[in-house]
Amino acid sequence: MAQSQSNAATAVANIFRTPELKDKIIWTLLCLLIYRIGAHVTAPGVNPVALIDFFRNQQNGGGLLGLYDLFTGGQLSRATVFALGIMPYISSSIFLQIAAAVVPQVDKMQKDEEGRKKINQWTRYGTLLLAAVQGWGFALFTESLSGVVANPGFGFRLETTFFLTTGAMFVMWLGEQITERGIGNGASLMIFFSIVERIWPGIGQTFSFVSTGAVGAFSLLVLAVIMVAVVAGVVAVTVAARKVLVQIPQRTMARGRQREASRSFIPLRINSSGVMPIVFAQSIIVVPGAIAQFSGNDRARALADMFAPGSAPYLVLSALLIVFFTYFYTSIIFNPIDLAENLKKQGGFIPGVKPGARTAEYIDDVVSKITLPGAIFLTLIALLPIWITRAMNVPFNFGGTSLLIVVGVALDTLTQMQQHLLLRKYDGFMKKGRVRFRGRQGSVGGF
Q: Which domain holds residue 128?
């Protein structure tokens, strides 16, 4: 224990001995501080108390509004100027990723610097458009609620759209500053801190449930054990990967000597799509409820009741959509053909597999096989809160989606900080100097 504390203290000291890394961390914390301050400035014309009561009574935790509110740290339910958060920027980035997978010209632009700059500019324009549309929709949504808007009308809609769009563009700028001048992953870190901010109030609420008798001490103990097990499982699956063996052929050196073939591994992540399949699936499954809410049609309401969170159709459709989007999003962000071509250019090869098209087919087959357990894992994480709430009769949800985001972002941030330390010839946070992928080494001709 003493040795581990000493290693941790040494790692923290190494951070502040590295001027570049220290400046990046300070800049990141400053941007996040500004983001959290703006998260408590309410947009004009909205009664946040009435809006919070609506979110609490409707229990939209399983719907799109609840998911959006989770990613913004409760800003949507409080109607702050940053109510849209970083989500318009993320949505715009996803659209461009999908376009790159479908349109060859966009894919070609991603491979050179000038093309990437133009795509980044398109992403900003898309963010502006999405933020304006979502801001107008949020204004219409708040007007439809009783007692939330004091003076509804065109003026209120225009004012709300302006403030929310401006806030979303400023949040996008803060995220880009963290990515360029901070420790990276600005958008992910903003979502991370938005979720973490709600942990302590959630812990206090849990203990208040115990004191009032709403939750028994034994149920709380069982819930704590489940949470620890889920955290361990999330960490294990997040870093788990299938290692594919790669060899570089022998080359003749001076005086006729030959260098031994170098061996390395390509880590193929089991959960390479992250939390995005859950986001896509829940965004689609709440469409019937949104249509029913705005249309008032009886058939639409009946369809929304059929797919209400917790119902059997909801659970089945959610599982199918998560599995589908896991494969879909993995195919977008991972291109085995490009990987095989890059490997061929470097003179490397997978033992027993011909370079080129055969290598791409082999990698694609491996990715298809390991994506299935990743999809099953995401499905369990997404549906776990519903199962726990029903089985233990607890009056709150245990957020598996938020846990997946927090663990993934934390591990990725630690890895980036280690890389900065290792470049300065310091020891990293981990004992081995890097976050290691778990999984057996790749073997030829099978999985």
A: 18-197
Cβ distance 73 to 40 under 8 Å? no
Inside any domain, residue 317: no
Residue type, 240: A
DSSP notation for 111-152:
TSHHHHHHHHHHHHHHHHHHHHHHHHHHHHHHHTSTTTBSS-
Number of domains in the chain: 1
What is the H or E stretch that residue 266 is in? strand 263-269
Is residue 251 domain-resident? no
269, pLDDT greater than 90: no
What is the reported pLDDT for 319? 86
- CATH number of residue 83's parent domain: 1.10.3370.10
- Gap between the Cα atoms of 350 and 264, Å rounded: 10
Provide the b/e sequence for 362-394 (b: ≥16 CB within 10 Å). Answer: bbbebbeebbeebbebbbbbbbbbbebbeebeb
Predicted TM-score (pTM) above 0.85: no
Which pair of tokens denotes residue 295? 């249309």
Other beta carbons less than 10 A from residue 95's beta carbon: 14
Judge contact between 80 and 43, C-beta under 8 A.
yes
- Report yes or no: 407 and 231 within 8 Å, Cβ to Cβ: yes
